[in-house]
Design a protein that fits this description.
The complex is a heterodimer of chains A (316) and B (309). With 316 residues, chain A is mostly helical. Chain A contains 16 helices and no strands. In chain A, α8 runs antiparallel to α14. The model of chain A has no long low-confidence stretch (mean pLDDT 84). In chain B, the strands form three sheets. A six-stranded mixed β-sheet of chain B has the order 6-7-8-3-9-10, with helices on both faces. Chain B has a four-stranded antiparallel β-sheet with strand order 2-1-4-5, covered by helices on one side. Chain B has a four-stranded antiparallel β-sheet with strand order 12-13-11-14, covered by helices on one side. The longest helix of chain B has 18 residues. Chain B folds into two domains: 219 residues, P-loop containing nucleotide triphosphate hydrolases (Rossmann fold, 3-Layer(aba) Sandwich); 62 residues, Alpha-Beta Plaits (2-Layer Sandwich). With 309 residues, chain B is of the alpha/beta class. The chains are: A mainly alpha (316), B alpha/beta (309). Chains A and B meet through α1, α8 and α9 of A and α2, α3, α4 and α5 of B.
Chain lengths: 316, 309
């Protein structure tokens, strides 16, 4: 017997609240999911928007500073290339008025352009979340402890939501905070504070349906490869079908958008940034509401599905 | 009382897994016996609050089973199935399940180490669980069941698939828990030897009905009334014939030993028959029935009553 062995001792301490048990599932899941190198690299790349957003906001901050000067040289060339000569003139005439428009569009763009990366991280993390528990019968271990199905579901949802938030919410909030910190004056914060709720709303618009869909697909099978292929079929197959229908067969019709999760999310995200936008292609107001409703329906259906699936093993 | 069932019925889409079961179970170590499909697993799941009652009422340690989370605060469960959280090492899986029971992370980790030492897995604590042997997996499941200090623990086939040595170690742990640590243990098993080795009482289930629940001592007395008689001064075959003539079943098992059984005043008739044959009665020993015999007799009785109905 090892000298440190204490034998069986009764533990009589105070237990932690229920939310902490769900958090334990999330914490374990996040640690397990980041073991593959691919996931760690992808997560590192997720902070790239911080770099370009940071530079852009800094440049715009300098331009729109009433006491500042229009930058010359390389920065001006890039800004002109990005925004066009007409916009640069507007910027010279009334710099403060256009700051809000610029920030709005940049965050909207960041949320939209990051969607393919969200798809990749979802493919890397989501398939094994519940399917592995079904395969290894880990649900017997979870549910032999004092947690309910909602705790389990929230714990599992937290894993995927955490990763998606790392790609959507974290870089945007990070860029916003950095931009405000490095802004030439406090006016920047006063003019742009309302963008923070928009960023949160846009991130939730991505996080919630993607998490619900990921968990549902993972819960439909005991084999994570099947779940992965199903997700690829939905994400990639849906995208290809959307392009064929949208571009070739039904140009202008809104409904093919439902086949593409990326396009549906893009349109719904545009709803979050309500201010007028500089780039028309970001928003199509009619399809934004349509997309939001479609995502809400998808979320509810997937949540009901996953709830039923995690109840099923107990009843057999 | 560790649990009480009152008219409990559980149906799965028409199939009755438990049929009007009523019982009050006292603390200690209890064997839950029954053939496949008898309703043992359903009873355990029901007591853990994992499945809902169709009818009746059930309590575990004074808590209603409808309050499942509250029950699982004080009850541990060691599943029969090979189950683990993929990718976690031994100590991690025990610590994480302790956290699920509400134990703070640092305490959970310390407790996980203690439990792994207790179940003699200390040297394999940093190996991934999927690389464990069958016996090691059984022991880590026991550690998981015990990590939050339950007052009652359900062990589903705890020695299934283990080699004789590992099986004896597991039974020793179960005996220690029940007799020295004050933890009540319910063992669901097909292996009757395990129940005989470490249980005080047994419940026998068949086709969802509770056939018997009593202490092993009482069960051994009830099934068979046979006695073994050692005689002197005569032929045991003569005594066996004399007893058969009196309506008992009897057979000579050796030159001076007769085994007799039957309804009625067996002892009195035995004395008379011995005197009639001119023999001396040296010893009468009540037969000690094995649990296997009790189990099979119970199933036969149930089969007969089922056929009659």
């Amino acid at each position: 017997m090892p000298i440190h062995e204490l034998g069986y001792r009764v533990w009589k301490g105070s237990t932690r609240p229920r939310w902490a048990r769900a958090w334990s599932i999330t914490r374990t899941g996040i640690a397990l999911a980041r073991r593959p190198v691919f996931v760690r690299r992808l997560c590192f790349l997720a902070i790239v928007p911080l770099l370009y957003l940071g530079w852009f906001f800094f440049a715009v901050g300098v331009i729109t500073d009433p006491d500042g000067r229009i930058p010359s040289g390389f920065s001006q060339a890039i800004l002109r290339g990005a925004l066009g000569s007409e916009f640069m003139r507007a910027l010279r005439d009334d710099p403060g008025a256009v700051r809000e428009l610029i920030w709005n569009d940049m965050f909207l763009g960041a949320h939209t352009f990051v969607l393919p990366a969200v798809g990749l991280i979802t493919l890397a993390v989501a398939p094994k979340l519940i399917s592995n528990d079904l395969r290894t019968k880990a649900f017997l271990l979870y549910f032999s402890k004092p947690i309910g199905r909602l705790d389990y579901l929230l714990g599992k949802a937290g894993i995927l939501a955490g990763y998606v938030a790392w790609f959507t919410l974290v870089p945007s909030i990070g860029a916003y905070v950095l931009s405000v910190l490095f802004a030439p004056s406090i006016d920047t914060l006063l003019q742009t504070w309302h963008i923070v709720p928009s960023i949160v709303q846009a991130s939730l618009t991505t996080i919630v349906p993607v998490t619900a869909l990921g968990l549902f697909i993972s819960s439909t099978t005991r084999d994570q490869r099947v779940a992965t292929f199903t997700m690829i079929a939905i994400l990639v197959g849906g995208e290809i079908t959307y392009w064929i229908l949208h571009v070739e067969l039904f140009p202008g019709a809104a409904w093919p958008m439902l086949l593409s999760l990326r396009e549906t999310l893009s349109n719904a995200i545009a709803n979050s940034f309500e201010a007028p936008t500089l780039v028309e292609s970001f928003t199509e107001s009619t399809s934004s509401s349509f997309s939001s409703i479609a995502l809400a329906v998808l979320t509810v259906a997937c949540s009901i599905g996953v709830w039923r699936r995690i109840s099923a093993p107990m009843n057999s | 009382m560790i649990f009480r069932l009152d008219g409990v019925t559980k149906e799965y889409s028409g199939f009755r897994a438990l049929d009007d079961v009523s019982v009050e179970v006292e603390p200690g170590s209890i064997g839950l016996l029954g053939p496949n499909g008898a309703g043992k697993s359903t009873m355990i799941k029901l007591l853990l609050g994992l499945v809902r009652l169709t009818r009746g009422r059930a309590e575990v340690l004074g808590r209603d089973v409808r309050n499942a989370v509250s029950i699982r605060e004080v009850v541990g469960y060691m599943p029969e199935d090979d189950c683990y959280i993929a990718g976690l090492r031994g100590v991690e899986i025990v610590a994480r399940t302790a956290e699920l029971a509400g134990i703070p992370p640092l305490t959970a980790l310390r407790r996980a180490h203690e439990m792994l030492d207790y179940v003699q897995l200390g040297e394999s604590r940093y190996r991934e669980v999927q690389t464990y042997s069958t016996g090691m997996k059984q022991r880590i499941r026991l550690a998981i069941a015990l990590v939050h200090s339950p007052q009652l623990v359900f062990l589903d086939e705890p020695t299934s698939g283990m080699d004789p040595d590992g099986r004896e170690q597991m039974l020793e742990l179960v005996r220690d828990l029940a007799r020295n640590k004050g933890v009540s243990v319910v063992i669901s098993t097909h292996i009757l030897h395990d129940v005989e080795a470490c249980c005080d009482a047994a419940m026998i289930l068949s086709r969802g009905k509770l056939l018997r629940y009593d202490t092993l001592e009482n069960l051994r007395r009830t099934v068979d009334t046979a006695v073994t008689v050692r005689i002197g001064g005569g032929d045991s075959n003569r005594l066996a014939t004399a007893l058969r003539n009196r309506g008992f079943s009897a057979e000579a098992t050796s030159a001076d030993v007769v085994r007799a059984s039957g309804e009625g005043d067996l002892s009195g008739q035995l004395l008379e028959a011995t005197l009639q044959c001119g023999m001396s009665l040296h010893e009468i020993t009540p037969a000690r029935n094995s649990l296997e015999k009790i189990f099979l007799q119970s199933l036969r009785d149930d089969g007969a009553s089922h056929a009659n109905s």
